[in-house]
Structures are given as C-alpha cells and as structure tokens.
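Forum > Structural Biology > Help requests

Title: Can anyone predict the 3D structure of tRNA-2-methylthio-N(6)-dimethylallyladenosine synthase?

Hi all, first post here. I have the sequence for tRNA-2-methylthio-N(6)-dimethylallyladenosine synthase but no way to get a structure on my laptop. I'd be grateful if someone could post the structure tokens.
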Amino acid sequence: MSDLVPLSRKPAPVAGDPVPSPAAPPRKVYVHTFGCQMNESDSDRMVELLGRHAYARAASADEADLILLNTCAVREKAEQKLLSALGRYREVKARRGALIAVSGCVAQQEKDRLLARVPYVDFVFGPDNIGRLPEMVERARDERFAETGWMDSEEYVFPRADPEAARGRVTAFVTAMKGCDNVCAFCIVPHTRGREVSRPFPDVVAECAALAGVGVREVTLIGQNVNSYTGGCTFADLLRRVAAVPGIDRIRFTTSHPHDLSDALVEVFRDEPKVMPHFHLPVQSGSDAVLRRMRRDYSVAEYLDRFDRLRAARPGIAITTDFIVGFPGETDADFEASLALLERARFEQSFSFVFSPRPHTVAAVRLGSAPEWQDVPRGTAVARLERLLAAQRRIAGEILAGELGKVVEVLVEGPSDEPGERLGRTPENRVVHLAADEAAAPAGARVAVRITRAGGSSLSGTLA
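Reply #1:
Sure, ran it for you. Structure tokens for tRNA-2-methylthio-N(6)-dimethylallyladenosine synthase below:
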C-alpha cells in the first residue's frame, strides 16, 4: 500500500483531458533450477529472454504467472524430485492460472510422456529450444505440447548473457560449448544434451568483455565437456584469449574429461596467473576394471599421470573429482581401490554418489546381464559411500586446517549470511568468511586475508 498516492494530493481532473490507460504490470516468471552450473546458466538466459517480452523474475512461485522447472537427469531420483515440486506448484496454477513448463534434461528425456503423466503441465521443452521460449509461452495459452527436437549443429545458436542482468555481480558463467560425444556407460548427458557443439571463440571473448564492462571480475567457462572445446581454437588458446580481456581477473572452467587434459592445457596452468589453481577432474572409480565397464578411456595410472603433471605445473592447485560408488559389478576390492586413490590424491573435494541406472544408458541396459554387471545391493553401496565420504571429510578438513595463519588473496563476492561479515573465495575456490564491512571489503575487491579459523567446508579470517 505504500506506493499509493494520498487522496488529498491527487490532482483534480481537467475537463477534456484524455483518460490515461493504466500500464499493464509485467508478468512474472519463477524458475526452479535443479542440478549443474549449465542449468543455472540456462535459467539465467531464460529469465533474460523473457525479460525482453514483459516478464520480470518472481521472488516466489506464489506470485508467478509462469513457473519454469529447469531439470537435471544426472542424479538419482531426478524424476521423483521433479514430480514432488510439480505437486507443490499445482495449487498456484489453480489459484492464479499460472502456466507451468518443464525444461532441461528430464524434459528432454521424458518428452510428451511427461504431459501424459502430469496433466497440469502446459508445455515441455529441451535445452536446444530455449531461444524459442517466448513464442512457446504464447502457444501454451492455446495448447499443450512438447518441443524436444535437436537443432543441427550448424544452426545452433548459443543463448548470450545480458550484461546488464549481471551488473552488480562479481562472478558469472559463460557458456563455451554444450553436449558430449563421450558415451560413458552411466551417463545420460549425450541423450539429454546432444552432441558436442562449441561456441565460436570471438563470441565467448566478447561476452566476457561485456561482463567485465559491468563489473564482473571472475568468469567460469562452462560446458558438459568443456576442455574438448573446438570453437576455432583449442581450449588452451581460448583460456589465453579470455585472460587478455581487460577487467577479467580470474578464470575458472568446468566440467572436464581426463582424456582431454592436454599438455597445452597443463601449460596454461603453469603460465597464466589469471587461470585459477582449481581443476575439477572426475575420476569416477579407482578400479581399472570398473573404469573399463564405465567406458572411461583411461586407467588409474593414466589418470594419476595427468594429475601429477597438473600438480607439478601449478604447485598447490586444488583438484576436485567425482566418484560413483556401487557401479554394477563393483567388488570390495574395487571399492578399496577407490578409497586408496582418494588417499593418494588427497582431493580437495569429491562429489560422490551411489550408482543409479539412468534411462537409455549402457549400464541400465546391461545391469544384471552377466556376473560382471550384477547389481550391488543398496545397503552395501550406501555403506561404501559413507566410508568414502568420511575419508573425504577428514582430508578436506586437514587441507583447510593447513591454511590457518596464512595470508591468502580473497575475491569478495558480497555479504556473508553472518551479520557483519563478507564472503569470498580464494584462487583455489575455498570459501572464506571475512570479518569486515562493505567499505573495507567491497564486492569485486581482491583483499589479503589472514586465516584465523578452519571449518569443515570453509575458512574464516580478518583483513591482513
């Protein structure tokens, strides 16, 4: 009510004045994002695109005219999580007449089956159709439909970030490529994101420059297999080109496949200080037998060779990884090999999950078909995962404890959840809570911080 003009201050109408028509308030879109950084980036692009068609971002689903669920199919129970969320939004649709749309990997996987299963979903669309979202919204007022066709690689146009939408932010994602040409036995990404398509390097560099122009200081280049980039130069060359952009202080990227870790990329970590000493290099298992069934085209020894070359090129680099526990046929010895690899590598973090079969994948088709493809009992897999996670927590705690008393560089991103503190990250991507106010540590500043406390997943410190 605070924006209403008091009655006594309203000007008296003059005879003959035209009667103004009230401006239509912008419609509002609420996006519920599941999963990876690529989905986060896609959600931002969708909101920006709709913003050019009279939509504003809603703070909650309760005030939305359009509810978008941008889904991920990689992890276990993805469909159940989606259905649970849809159930919560059904009431909003009934009360407000809001449109409900499902996008992302589950949408691409389920297609029109999702429309049949959930009758109050208005439309479903895959990642290749994001650019058509405004016209699909209008179409959905008259019919229900699924748009999940693939675009030819030559015709695919990458959604471009709106720099103004990033004004005031310190970090931003920039899409470098999409899709994956590897067919790992456990992974649904080739089925939901399609073949690899690389964005031309001038477009990537131009977007980074535009973001730098509105104050972004750190960019993360993203793609399902980003270091297989072929957009007119190698990925190593792309990193060097982005590093030359004035105003960009830090560069990160994710996600990578070990077989695309080239000598040239290792050299970039050695030579280019703007490329941060942090690398996510998924290994998936410490057992060669399991890696072969997973269709990962490296052995543990080959993985460690790449790992050691990275550590030699950039001493102190923080390397993170992924593990899948309980992959079909995994024996106690296979799991112990994964534990041994974790202890040997001392990963900064590992994102570890119990295997769950994804539709259309080799592992789902072959599960139970032969002794080496036998299902691992759920209880066994969960117990193994708990042991792996406990070891990783111990190692991560020891790594963070080793930072106590050191002075580190922190890029300030903004306020912390704790009153009177600021939040930022070190070059190694470690979260730091800083006892300082905004004047002393403004967003975008790189400040020297003395570490005074090490927690299980973050650090705390004071200005040095």
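The chain has three domains: 27-147, 163-402, 406-463. The CA atoms of residues 122 and 144 lie 5 Å apart.
Shout if anything looks off.
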